[in-house]
Amino acid sequence: MKYNILKTIGKFAASAALALLAGNALAQSASADGEIRKIDASGNRVVIKHGEWSGMSMGAMTMAFKVRPASLLEGLKVSDKVHFAIEKEGADFVVTAIDHTLQEAALAVQH
Ligand SMILES: [Cu+2]
Q1: Where are the beta strands (DSSP E) in 10-75?
Q2: Residue 7 in domain
Q3: For residue 72, what is the DSSP state?
Q4: pLDDT tens track for 35-61
Q5: Which residues have CB atoms below 5 A from the ion given as ligand 1?
Q6: What is the value of pTM for the model shown?
Q7: Count of domains in the chain?
Q8: Distance 29 CA to ligand 1 centre (A)
């Protein structure tokens, strides 16, 4: 009897853990296009005016992100147009990659 109760609790804990992992894998990362609006190098933060995200439900807006690693901010300037990757960590959205291809494409058109 005691064994059955422990077994049931064990199964419940295992399925809860799996549900948590599945949730993280499926819904916690995204990418978007945007324009750099503010760079806070000492605070490892960036403000980006972004379009709709693919991978997570987020409409277009201007918002602040944490940045990791901080080296992603090197060479970045206000008004740069970028494509970037986002991961949700608790209540925070963290930028984990920044790509300048949009900026290069815009420059190529200008020249
Ligand atoms: Cu947003």
Answers
A1: 29-40, 45-50, 61-67
A2: no
A3: G
A4: 999 999 999 999 999 999 999 999 999
A5: 58, 61, 63
A6: 0.69
A7: 1
A8: 13
